[in-house]
Design brief:
The chain has 486 residues and is α/β, with parallel strands linked by helices. It has 2 domains: 139 residues, Rossmann fold; 294 residues, Dihydrodipicolinate Reductase, domain 2 (2-Layer Sandwich). The chain is built from 15 helices and 15 strands. The strands form 2 sheets. The protein has a 9-stranded mixed sheet with strand order 14-13-12-11-7-10-9-8-15, with helices on both faces. Strands 3-2-1-4-5-6 form a 6-stranded parallel sheet, sandwiched between helices. Helix 5 runs parallel beside helix 6 and helix 9 crosses helix 14. The radius of gyration is 24 Å and the shape is globular. The two termini are 30 Å apart. Bound molecules: nicotinamide-adenine-dinucleotide (NAD). The site of nicotinamide-adenine-dinucleotide has 22 residues, from helix 1.
Length: 486
């Protein structure tokens, strides 16, 4: 296959928090993979900036260890590692003080053709300090870009404050709010399938779609992040950002162009069209302990905590396209399998010419984000062989690995794609400030509702699909969740 990758300008990418967990696990391994794919220009450089006292060599050693741990053996070679590490530099910096900033200013190249990008891979409480000092020391200019990580606020008020702080120093066109779900190949393929074919769009509405399910299931508990997680819960940690973004891409109207503001305008309209959620349409859960597996209460060391580690909800997008079509979303920890998928469940054929015995068959478009990214369309066909007309559902596979050859199993990971988009100056797959605020404006009253009602989450056994009450959300309407399985 001939690669038609859009070239990338030379860049200096500074990773604040360059020694942290996210940088070691995702950002640096992603950059390494782009480097070996030949996508990093000759003179691109990566500058780690964090609190630890290290020199370039010390940092390179640390990153070498990270690559060995988080990049597949197949992609590692001494030659490549050495070449990649030679692009790395390090500046020890104090986000809250003056230490290191002069050195960082000197380390950056003074050349208008070199893109300056700053990845804020640090706690959000430091975002304001970083933005301010980048300006104070004239390190960031009109052509610089910043990348900010989740969580972007914990409610509307804090998100607005964060947006205002960043806006003091950066224009919206310079701010890249990352949601790595948008960087997944399949999520973009969803848009290609929806808007690149004539087949789907005519059916993509309440007339033909019975309902939509979005599931993000994890097997891990809150583990070492208990302190942080307990203040947040599944609604803030997963629904307000990741599930909401997926819902927007499914529900939005076709944008006029695949361009940042055209796409983000349409997503924003979806968020604004989301109706408030009735208490009876929300199920929150908390995992119990089992054998040696600790309970949620053990994990967060608070036996009274009412924070949810699971949530399922029935949502409505109130516009012409989706009137009457429910969107069921659920996410949780310590569930049966690690699985993220979107399922578009189409309506039954209006009349069955094959009679009762043929059973109920439905087309389901499944967009799987993990594991094994891919897309399948379930279609009904005749079961082969004699003996009458028996119907059977078979999946039409639209996965890249099969369709596009061996490169398919080397699909770039979300982070590497998104970092390269920052360097290219393409904001399409990043959240705009007003989107984030609209998402919180919808989320806040829901959380306030259950806090006021003083509700306890339902307990659920680890290794299941969550509390039984979640199944009831669909059963009562003669629907069922798709099975959570590897
Ligand atoms: P971490 O605690 O592992 O690393 C924090 C980094 O910040 C370190 O490099 C540290 O040196 C640096 N730092 C801390 N205080 C500093 C200061 N005053 N001046 C300069 N540098 C300072 O954190 P992490 O897990 O890498 O997370 C970083 C950010 O990314 C957080 O906002 C987190 O919420 C977000 N995030 C992390 C993950 C993940 O998987 N780890 C996933 C999504 C979002």
């Amino acid at each position: 296959m001939v690669s038609r990758v859009i070239p990338v300008d030379p860049f200096d990418l500074v990773i604040f928090g360059g020694t942290g967990d996210l940088a070691r696990r995702k950002i640096l391994p992603g950059l390494y993979r782009r480097f070996i794919a030949g996508q990093m220009p000759e003179d691109a450089r990566v500058i780690g900036a964090a609190r630890s006292e290290l020199d370039d060599e010390g940092y390179r050693k640390d990153v070498r260890d990270a690559l060995k741990e988080f990049v597949s053996k197949r992609a590692l070679s001494e030659e490549n590692i050495a070449a990649f590490l030679s692009r790395l530099h390090y500046v020890s910096i104090d986000a809250k003080g003056e230490g290191g900033w002069k050195k960082l200013a000197q380390t950056m190249r003074d050349d208008d053709d070199v893109v300056r990008a700053f990845y804020f891979s640090v706690a959000p409480s430091l975002f304001g300090d970083l933005a301010e000092r980048l300006h104070l020391h004239k390190i960031a200019g009109a052509n610089s870009r910043i990348v900010v990580e989740k969580p972007f606020g914990r409610d509307l008020e804090s998100a607005k404050a964060l947006n205002a702080t960043l806006a003091e120093h950066f224009d919206e066109t310079q701010i890249y709010r990352i949601d790595h779900y948008l960087g997944k190949e399949t999520v973009q393929n969803l848009m290609a399938v929806r808007f690149g074919n004539v087949l789907f769009e005519p059916l993509w509405n309440a007339q033909y779609v019975d309902h939509i399910q979005i599931t993000v299931a994890e097997t891990v508990g809150v583990g070492g992040r208990g302190g942080y997680y307990d203040k947040s819960g599944a609604m803030r940690d997963m629904v307000q950002n990741h599930l909401m973004q997926l819902l927007c891409l499914i529900a939005m109207e076709p944008p006029s162009r695949f361009e940042p503001d055209a796409v983000r305008d349409e997503k924003l309209k979806v968020i604004r069209a989301l109706e408030p959620v009735e208490p009876g349409d929300i199920v929150r859960g908390q995992y119990e302990g089992k054998g040696k597996t600790p309970s949620y209460h053990d994990d967060v060391e608070d036996g009274e905590s009412r924070t949810e580690s699971f949530i399922a909800m029935k949502l409505h997008v109130s516009n012409w396209r989706w009137a009457g079509t429910p969107f069921y979303v659920r996410t949780g920890k310590r569930l049966k399998a690690r699985q993220s998928e979107i399922a578009v469940v189409f309506k039954d054929a209006p009349h069955s010419i094959f009679g009762e015995a043929a059973g109920r068959h439905r087309n389901i478009l499944t967009i799987r984000l993990q594991p094994n990214e891919g897309m399948t369309l379930g279609v009904t066909i005749k079961e082969p062989g004699p003996g009458g007309m028996r119907l059977v559902d078979v999946p039409l596979d639209m996965s890249f690995a099969d369709a596009l050859g061996p490169e398919g199993d080397e699909i770039p990971e979300a982070y590497e794609r998104l970092v390269m988009d920052v360097v290219r100056g393409n904001q399409t797959l990043f959240m705009r400030g007003d989107e984030v605020e609209a998402a919180w404006a919808w989320t806040d009253p829901i959380i306030e509702g259950w806090t006021k009602r003083d509700e306890r989450p339902f307990a659920y056994e680890p290794g299941t699909a969550g509390p039984e009450e979640s199944a009831m959300l669909l059963h009562r309407e003669d629907r069922r969740w798709r099975e959570i399985k590897e």
